[in-house]
Amino acid sequence: xxxxxxxQQLQEQFGPAIQRADLPGDHRLFVYIDxxxxxxxxxxxxxxxxxxxxxxIGVDDRPYSGQFLVAHDFAFDADHVLCSVxxxxxxxxxxxxxxTEVVPAAGWAERExxxxxxxxxxxxRYLKRLVLPDGWPDGMHPLRKDVPWNHVPPGYDAExxxxxxxxxxxxxxxxFGPFHPTLDEPAHFRLYVExxxxxxxxxxxxMVHRGIEKLAESxxxxxxxxxxxxxxxxxxxxxxxxxxxxxxxxxxxxxxxPRAEYIRTVMLELERLHSHLLWTxxxxxxxxxxxxxxxxxxxxxxxxxxxxxxxxxxxxxALCVVGGVRWDLTPPLRQELRAVLxxxxxxxxxxxxxxxxxxxxxxxxxxxxxxxxxxVKQAGLVGxxxxxxxxxxxxRRDHPYAAYDRxxxxxxxxxxxxxxxRLLVRTAEVFExxxxxRQCLEKMEDGPLAQPLxxxxxxxxxxxxxxxxxxxxxxxxxxxxxxxxxxxWRVRAPTYQNLQAVPMMIKDQQIAxxxxxxxxxxxCFSCTDRLETVDLHSGAAKVWSQAxxxxxxxxxxxxx
Amino acid sequence: xxxRLIWAVGGTLGNAGLALLLAPLFQGVLRKVTARIQSxxxxxxxxxxxxxxxxxxxxxxxxxxxxxxQRFAAYLALATVLTLAGLVPMGLPVPLAGAGDVLLLVxxxxxxxxxxxxxxxxxxxxxALVGISREMMTMIxxxxxFAIAIVVGAIRAxxxxxxxxxSGSAYAGGGFPWSGAVMAAVILSSFQAFVQRVPFDVAxxxxxxxxxxxxxxxxxxxxxxxxxxxxxxxxxxTLFVALFIPWGSGLPALLAWLxxxxxxxxxxxxxxxxxxxxxxxxxxxxxxxxxxxxxxxFAALLLAGYGH
Lengths: 560, 308
Fold this sequence. Notes:
- Chain A is α+β, with helices and mostly antiparallel strands.
- Chain A has 20 helices and 15 strands.
- In chain B, about 50% of the residues are buried.
- The interface between A and B is medium-sized, with 32 and 29 residues.
């Protein structure tokens, strides 16, 4: 079914509640609906039409249309259609029916919308702050257009500790984070445990906010943002940069030259390779198998070197501009890349064989951290977590971008829905990535690297883009704007959805399984924590205040 | 009489000194070999000495719930292993052979584990408490194993004297030593746990519990604890050699002494290779494993009782 057929279904079902629609091509659908029908329409999409929930976005559109705007994004993966349901809200009463009751996966997105844009999800059962720290004053919403990007509101209390929920009776609390050797990035799980068993947990994250979206919407230009987008993540940065430029390109109907599309594909797959190797190593480290960890990193290293040769950097490739790429793959580089892939393939096979035979690793991973098909659907899980539960979704095949429609590869799935299956999926995907890069090197056409921009880009256009990151779908929503920068740019990293399911995955497991279960979604907290205007930390008991630490690190003397 | 006294004092000091002096070297060997298995360069062989020196030179911070207990646990840990050093034969006769019987050895081995419990209690943090609950469960399952091994030796040698039991007594007496052979296999299979290495380092599991009971330790006291742990590796290896690999002790003294250290090195290398090729067990999986060994050990005890 194309986007036109889907629109027809909606119109037949809801009639006048569907106010208007934009259909830029067969694969994108933007429908504007009556706010009163929000919950019914979302339920119909999610349950009856079996669409996958992607993300919800709050937009302060008052300077342009005098209204607030909420977008609920859904994906019809089998139809190759990305769909955005847009709901205009009056400027004086930004309230909307919560859809969390019918689409559980929207829980975080609605809380975030309430924190940052001040749109109240009516009927949401757990309206605790998600992104904003507890010391932030009420009624101050950083992503509204009348708040400057560098504004720190009066009354903001950086020292105020987070408030936590009461643990269930009979449980003790084990704090996991904000800093823990296996987390690598700050995030705070409060585990409720009975003996060695985890009965539940509360998550507080968003401690490394960098205000990336606000920065892009207020001070940067279209072609500065790819460099910023890349810094969302230290592992899958290229994914975000590609997803961003594709969102702009799809909004203004600009197609990069084929050569650029092949180069983007090669670099994305190179990124997936190093990410999967890194993950396999870290997973081994988490279960105490350091030898395999070290071997994975040794095998991974040539990938970093070839990336440096191509782009000048091991990571953070600075590859994309709107309309194309900046680096070429010259024949000698292609030759070298082929050799690197050959070596990787021969070295990776024994690792996969060793892992597959290792009873010890299986004892620690089989049946652990289970996220079954139901949870995948309800929580909107993506990437290897979904594929390990037998849900064959992969944006490279379902929403083809770059040159993925011109190469052959298999979508790897497994059936166990546990950590072991995720391990199998990731280790096998390495071979698929090698296959894809080889085909690209074979088929790559000559031609320009980038399409020059046709003057100023028009404002008010909507763009959606999904890119399959190593951890799952990275989804970018974008509205083009004035001054050659987007009005609104919303990044949804795969961890944003996958992390929400972790409390369900670790329930009734042992503490020892917590780290590998969390590790198995390949969490990326900096991706998830991309929003906000100020930097904060947990506010847990500490000797130094943030101001004092800053003063110290900047060489000054700390205030007493 | 004087000669015995001199040997008791001198031998104990010698053993303790030797254990303290060589423990970091064996640790260095362990780290170097691990690194080689992992395709790494690895730290210099003498790195553990530098680490200890560095830690000893650091500020002595006391933290956690009960600093006096924290202090006591660190001193006790080292004191216990040093006392143990006097009760084992490091290639020469046991220095303190007359000081007690093998049961003293069993108690001291348990005391070494108790130090870790005290350390965890002193820290009082949730991670430390999870660590000591794991340590305690491990101790309950493990300590009987070595005790049984020693008692089997005692039964076969018809003596509880230290020097008699600690000279290959597992195979003493007539006939094929079934019980001794079973215990050798049992202790070898659980050896990683006695010296707290992967796959049985559950109580400290860095990636889960952040060193567990030891998390509040820093500076000189951490050095004491680390040193005690390194020494423990040598002592357990010594005990294993004395009980189960006695061959060659009839050689001329110098040769026998050298041969002892060769056996010890072999055992340390084995520990290294096993640690480098396994993933960590979860506490319940580890306990199930120990339970199996415990059954085998009791069977061996019965066999020994019936003279096999």
